[in-house]
Design brief:
Distance between the termini: 80 Å
Number of strands: 28
Number of domains: 3
Number of helices: 14
Shape: elongated
């Protein structure tokens, strides 16, 4: 089709499609392409007319950047690229196919079908749009909540409100999240961590439910088509996903809640050689991906078929540009980097001592106040928890916290010492190089694995519905079913499960570090024992909000725990506790470990009990309360603790938490709590916890 609008040479910078005062500039990197054509789709009332403009390398190429500027384009055009060059994948890794239309790696908005509709023709269409709308942020600014004061709430955008019980007007969308803001505010969380929100193909899943034969979906979305474009089907108005995402961020900020994105730079949806070619493979395969030097097979450190060449300068720049865009244009507050250890590999897959992209992210001035969190491992066995980066900016998902708490709470012997280290902020992992307790993102559950309810209800995964013969998902759950597998009506088992959940909540929210809980854990969401629900776009994964009413006592327990954490700086220390004996710790906050009797410690293999005194003296904000916390990891035996001195003039404590009790007696306000005398004995139930608070305040 002959074009009828002016064309100009254009500029090689910036990459992507950029609106200028005189038109729209298009620029794309490709070092090895021999021909590049810009493909435009102009839609009128009846049909889409396609225009193709072959770029002249003498006019439209600067170095390795192909570019052109067009004027007079109608609004809401769609575009893509055809690239021609060698198709010699086993010789040099090049895989050009000019019969396909490639997505621009810098695409900000991708027109896609509704959720669940087939998109196999995406590489035969022009589907990238150029955002033209201006947006009024109405003065919105980053909240910059200190990391140590943060409470993270991990959620799936669709699953959070998709269930009919959510009673949302816009279920499964960014707008649906906003409908639940009052609930999140009442719970007390300070940040939502959204599972992947960039465009992905949920229909790419090849597995079927073996019982129903129904095709499953890539529900989680860890398979990006784009690093920029918000997923259109997460918007109630699929024509304006950018606007709705921004509305969500602005509304959450007004409620005092930050937005952290779980972002995937380690691989893409193109997979291995048997996967679809939609963008990077067809643009410059050996630049964007790690390839075996000999066979040219994809190096698969992600477990998803390919691995991005993150430390190549071109890919590095793409990653930084994406992060800048999300912060500057979309106002997000932080990022959780999926399989972040891949960011530390060179083009041959070797682990670098000081990976350029990891350092760039930490030192970047635009990201200076942005929260950056690493999932410090990859699918090839590289495990870097505690040493992902020496830079104090980087926080990490602390998998050691998860495992040590789980093992203590399933009765594993010899866990008391490890648990104490986690409670005190994991100094063994984070004290070097000036790092702090808040470098540890503490969690017991996440999207990947059992929910908290399932952690106390199943010993083994139940993943048959995933269509992989129960071979998928981790076998090392470190769980215990509390005596009966799955649903039960046994009151003793139910009481034990409830007690274990509340005790783990205490450990999560009253330990040093930054707590992260999974949406729904606070009201008992179950995935029926499925520990890898990545493909379950149904009631296995969707939050059942009826449970929030049914288990409102548990929700109250979590809410009061979060309030307690926020009210007392002793649980949110900026630095680690000072080493040395209690005699050396005469000023400032301190922690003193105790066995069953004051003045004794027992770190032996057979011990399943631990208690500790937190002294809150000399806190600048006047928060001077002391706390004594008792934990019993026995699976069936009560433990009897002798109560130590309060550390102040008072001779009594207040018992504010007892996980043996039913709501509302399980957690009480200080004024309503009963007193406990110094030197008295307190019983702590099996798998239970009791928390005492000083009966009177220290003088400020």
């Amino acid at each position: 089709m002959k074009i009828n609008f002016p064309t100009f040479s254009g500029s090689p910078q910036p990459l992507g499609a950029t609106v200028t005062p005189t038109g729209i500039n298009f620029a794309i990197f490709s070092r090895h392409a021999e021909k590049v054509s810009l493909v435009l789709g102009v839609k009128d009332a009846c049909e889409t007319t396609r225009f193709e403009i072959e770029l002249d390398p003498l006019i439209h190429k600067t170095g390795d950047i192909w570019h052109i500027q067009l004027s007079g384009l109608p609004p809401y055009i769609r575009y893509g690229y055809r690239l021609a060059g060698p198709m010699e994948p086993r010789v040099n890794g090049l895989a050009y196919n000019d019969s396909l239309i490639m997505l621009d790696p810098y695409a900000k908005e991708v027109r896609s079908p509704r959720w669940g509709q087939d998109r196999s023709s995406i590489n035969h269409q022009t589907c990238v749009l150029i955002p033209l709308d201006t947006y009024d942020w109405e003065g919105d600014r980053p909240l910059n909540i200190p990391l140590q004061d943060t409470v993270i709430y991990e959620m799936h955008v669709r699953g959070f409100t998709r269930h009919a019980s959510s009673q949302c007007s816009f279920p499964g969308t960014f707008k649906g999240i906003c409908e639940k803001i009052d609930y999140m505010k009442s719970l007390g969380i300070t940040a939502v961590e959204l599972m992947p929100v960039t465009e992905f193909d949920e229909t790419e899943c090849l597995f079927r439910n073996p019982e129903t034969g129904k095709k499953l979906r890539n529900y989680w979305g860890y398979s990006p088509l784009s690093f920029f474009a918000p997923k259109a089907s997460y918007s109630s108005d699929s024509a304006h996903p950018l606007r709705e995402f921004k509305d969500m961020v602005k509304t959450l900020h007004r409620a005092g809640i930050e937005v952290i994105l779980d972002i995937v730079f380690n691989h893409t949806s193109e997979g291995g050689w048997d996967g679809p070619t939609t963008s990077f493979r067809g643009i410059d395969n050996p630049i964007y991906y790690l390839l075996d030097p000999g066979t040219k097979d994809y190096l698969n450190f992600s477990g998803c078929g390919n691995t991005c060449n993150c430390n190549h300068p071109i890919v590095r720049a793409l990653i930084m540009d994406a992060l800048h865009w999300w912060v500057m244009e979309m106002h997000v507050d932080g990022f959780r980097f999926d399989l972040a250890s891949i960011l530390g590999r060179d083009q041959n897959g070797n682990v670098l001592r000081n990976p350029p992209v990891v350092e760039m992210i930490a030192e970047d001035p635009i990201l200076a106040n942005t929260k950056i969190i690493a999932e410090a491992w990859d699918a090839a066995g590289l495990y870097q928890v505690g040493h992902f980066s020496s830079h104090r900016r980087w926080a990490e998902w602390n998998g050691r916290f998860r495992d040590d708490v789980r093992m203590f709470m399933n009765g594993t012997p010899g866990m008391v010492s490890a648990l104490a280290t986690r409670i005190a902020g994991s100094s063994d992992l984070y004290q070097h190089n000036g790092r702090r307790p808040c470098n540890s993102i503490n969690f017991i559950t996440s999207h990947d694995g059992f929910t908290l309810a399932d952690l106390v209800s199943y010993n083994e995964k139940r993943n048959l519905a995933n269509g992989e013969n129960n071979q998928d998902g981790d076998n090392n759950n470190l769980s215990w079913d509390s005596g009966v597998s799955g649903p039960t009506h046994d009151p003793a088992v139910l009481a034990l499960r409830q007690r274990r959940i509340k005790t783990m909540a205490v450990l999560l929210l009253l330990s040093q570090g930054v707590p992260m809980l999974v949406a729904g854990d606070e009201f008992g969401q179950s995935q029926q024992g499925n520990n890898n629900a990545w493909c379950q776009d149904n009631e296995i994964s969707w939050l059942n909000w009826d449970l929030a009413e049914k288990n409102k006592g548990r929700v109250r327990f979590f809410r009061k725990l979060i309030q307690l954490r926020k009210a007392h700086a002793i649980f949110r220390r900026v630095d680690f506790f000072a080493p040395g004996s209690p005699e050396m710790q005469t000023s400032g906050q301190t922690i003193h470990w105790q066995a069953l009797e004051p003045g004794t410690e027992d770190w032996s293999e057979h011990t399943h009990t631990l208690s500790f005194l937190l002294k809150g003296c000399a806190v600048n904000d006047g928060d001077n309360d002391n706390f004594f916390i008792m934990l019993n990891g026995h699976s069936a035996e009560e433990a009897l603790f002798t109560i130590p001195e309060t550390g102040i003039t008072a001779s009594t404590w207040k018992k504010i938490i007892d996980t043996r009790q039913e709501a509302p007696r399980d957690i009480l306000d200080h004024a309503k709590a009963g007193t406990v005398a110094v030197g008295s004995k307190v019983k702590v139930a099996a798998m239970g916890c009791v928390v005492l608070q000083s009966a009177e305040m220290l003088p400020v």
